[in-house]
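User: Fold this; tokens only.

Assistant: Input:
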Amino acid sequence: MNATTTKASARPRRRLLAVVLILLGMLVGIALAGTTTWMVNASSSNNFCATECHSMQWAATAYQKGPHYRNEFGVRATCADCHIPFEDRPATPFQYVFGTLWTKGIDGTHDVIAKMRGTIADRGRWDAEKPRLSAQVREWFKRTNSATCQGCHKLDSFSGEGASAFMKMEVHSGAIKADKVDCVQCHSGIAHVYAPAAGN
């Protein structure tokens, strides 16, 4: 067998190896994407936020008292709908990685560190930290142009009849045209209704 025959017989093996490696890479990619999606969905549930992430149990109780949990329309916003970008609407791959996954990773890490340090380990410490945490969340809503609010509430879709509907449309008319929208400026405290502190 000469060198030309050896090279010719090696080509099909290389092609087969390349096809196998490409197919294996695709299978690994699909498995990783599926696992990531499953983990994101599992860790975005209200149950996860309230029970697995024990530091959020008091926020979950306050959320259950608010209109995002129970309302006249029968529509419930989840923890992730409000706190995770693009959870409430389809995202591009870039938005998914650098919006959803990045936010979950950073916020989750902060929560784990706070839990490990004991910063929010019990109700007293949680209450002491709540003003700082609330300020961080308000700043995040402002910085993201209230994107998660606008994922559900379309400002240009208010309609109806009567004084109440007219007021909603009139009050939000400026926000519809604005480049930046800060929903929390007017609607602070609507998602989590905390009981007043003892003695107040």
